[in-house]
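ok new one. same drill as before - structure tokens go in, u give me an amino acid for every spot. 65 of them this time. try not to just spam alanines like last time pls lmao
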């Protein structure tokens, strides 16, 4: 079975952010980074919008408490 340490680490970071009283978290992921998108989706993040810069597409994700 494949390890899910990236999801566990991301969840720990999110928990720490929630503990500071935040109600919404933002993340940015490059459009080509399918592994990071899978982790974000697994944790419940949703696509908010997309921008493009010199390095290509950038997806903006949110996660509400």
């Amino acid at each position: 079975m494949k390890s899910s340490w990236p999801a566990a680490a991301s969840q720990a970071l999110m928990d720490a952010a929630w503990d500071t009283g935040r109600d919404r978290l933002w993340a940015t992921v490059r459009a080509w980074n399918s592994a990071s998108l899978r982790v974000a989706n697994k944790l419940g993040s949703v696509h908010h919008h997309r921008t493009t810069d010199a390095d290509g597409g950038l997806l903006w994700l949110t996660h509400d408490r």
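Residues 23-65 form one domain. and btw The mean pLDDT is 93.
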